């Protein structure tokens, strides 16, 4: 609760206030919270000149009605919103909230809530560096502006220098806001805007001291994501010698604008909304948002609400699926009108183990120094090989390299690693196929992980030789590792809890051990327990790191196809994504290592930028199409209005059948057969006349029919429709099954693929 100072000069209102607090306290409603309040724009009273005036007056009228005009009570306008949503946020008691609900133009209100953050070789892995393709067609994203909603930016990073950048486009309306350790000369032709929003954090706790009151990043997350999207070329960037090379963003000539909404002191929806509101007003083309709200319906999800407004303006919103995998239904941002990105692995590993007999094994380590662990005895002994006792390990610490081998329980492996750290070994080798060991990233002792496949020869050597020795080589980088990509354990899986009828995530992009810029004030590595090391570049993992890859590709597509809608760009990304890894087998699921990944983990598959440039056909959608879906969901008029802000949409044609580039059908456990019908319309964005034939891979237990089976386009931009019928007739184990529909161009190069998922309704 906000506490006004008690050294009041006027006794009368003071008494009144005391009484009022007392009464409220008795009723248990004196507690204040920040509420986000949606208003009806069509009811704007024209006695006011601005929306802000109207909202302020709404708040003032509650204040004067109850407490007289001399007091500053809890009612405080935090933000007015006019772009991402229509309304305001304010600090209110429950009683005051009730009064707001009765005021003119009120639509809906809900409490402010916390947001969850989803914590460069990647451009080669995505084949962007070919002599033709998307980089060239888009001129590397020149003049596209990407708004990043995040933790701020470290403007001095090499990645944000503006060498080679041209003048800022005239349409840009943003600014470089001054603040703590941040002034306007820190923006340039690359970082063209930087603003910060923390009124919501302050409203939640008026005593809070904001430790970095500016757009400067103190966490590293925003610096990393924004440099992944559009960092400039930096030669010789590496993480302590690992992943060394030219660091650059996916769209190296695009512009960046940072909207800092996450502070060490808090991260709330009202600030996130304010950041997106400003980004839309400033004129960004793409919004990248590596965070989400869990467990909220679409009409109370700030990202769903704000991204609807963005989508109307043709702004592509790219978001992270979350890090709550591998269980089904853990995803956030599964919003029908934005792009939801899952995280995959990269074909890269670091470090080698060399045995005394000359055998060389490529392993995985990120120990941040060129430690000399050479020709030391290799110790393999049953008593200590579990590596689960600091006491036992300490006894042999100085004798050589310990081979740690035991259960494959990932928790145990993590503990083993900390025991090894604590015992200060000269070196250790872990045997593990647990990707989590690598996905967690950092290593603070001179250790290496090898796979169980490589383990037998090492154990055999250690057991059979009289004096086995080994060497660990650090700061080595190997690419082309197979299989890759695989979906990571942590990447959140669909179906989307907020609406399961659209297949989410949409696509997968690199998310594990991504090298990008970092803040020099936070440790990027540790050696032992006490030595902290900083680095201008860091390897981070998460769907937070996958999302900016997709945002960068969306920026390139925006540059290459300036007229395409957000739905068309998403469609191009989905229908050209690859379901195969670099062994030409289906992408694997590291959450369930024996299985291939389902589209509920990877969507259509790994993003393929060069193919997305020229998708052949696109599945487009208008804002009204999404509203038809909201109508079919039986949302109330007010719930729809919170999202659309405008009464110009109608519910004349409610429909679940959104023109989406993928299919998902659910069946009830006990039904023997179910029929689902879908109708889709594709737009020919190829060069001219073209004929496409349908090719279906049937999901097990279902029969999918497509009609017509041939689509003949006579000219560019022609639209044709087709029907899909999915007949489910019992699949023995009630499993999720999946297949696809590919429209293959006759005598041409395009193939337009849509994943199909058939799942029991029990998983929702
Ligand atoms: C009341 O609010 C006004 C303007 O918002 C401010 O200038 C004033 O200091 C506040 N008074 C108190 C007692 O908080
Ligand atoms: C901004 O800050 C930098 C570094 O502190 C300083 O060199 C520069 O002169 C400042 N620019 C302005 C316009 O104040
Ligand atoms: C939101 O975060 C703050 C800390 O930033 C915490 O104190 C509060 O309990 C959180 N609220 C919820 C609902 O999780
Ligand atoms: C292993 O442990 C047993 C019992 O604790 C002990 O007798 C034996 O000497 C140990 N072996 C080695 C190689 O340390
Ligand atoms: C099918 O489901 C059963 C249990 O429901 C599970 O044990 C099995 O692994 C699943 N198979 C596949 C291929 O997903
Ligand atoms: C349907 O099956 C799922 C798992 O197979 C189970 O969790 C769920 O309770 C079942 N629902 C009904 C209505 O039987």
From TrEMBL:
Residues annotated as catalytic: 150, 221, 544
Signal peptide: 1-30
UniProt-listed Gene3D superfamilies: 2.60.40.2310, 3.50.30.30, Peptidase S8 propeptide/proteinase inhibitor I9, Peptidase S8/S53 domain
Keyword Nuclease: no
Domain Inhibitor I9: 34-117
One GO BP: proteolysis
Occurrences of domain Peptidase S8/S53 (ranges): 141-592
InterPro entries in the cross-refs: Peptidase_S8/S53_dom, Peptidase_S8/S53_dom_sf, Peptidase_S8_Ser-AS, Peptidase_S8_subtilisin-rel, Peptidases_S8_3, S8pro/Inhibitor_I9, S8pro/Inhibitor_I9_sf, SBT
GO CC annotations on file: extracellular region
One Gene Ontology MF term: serine-type endopeptidase activity
Origin: domain of life: Eukaryota
Annotated compartments: Secreted
Keywords, alphabetical: Glycoprotein, Hydrolase, Protease, Secreted, Serine protease, Signal
Subtilisin-like protease fibronectin type-III domain span: 657-758
Family: Belongs to the peptidase S8 family.
Name this protein carries in UniProt: Subtilisin-like protease
Organism annotation: Glycine max
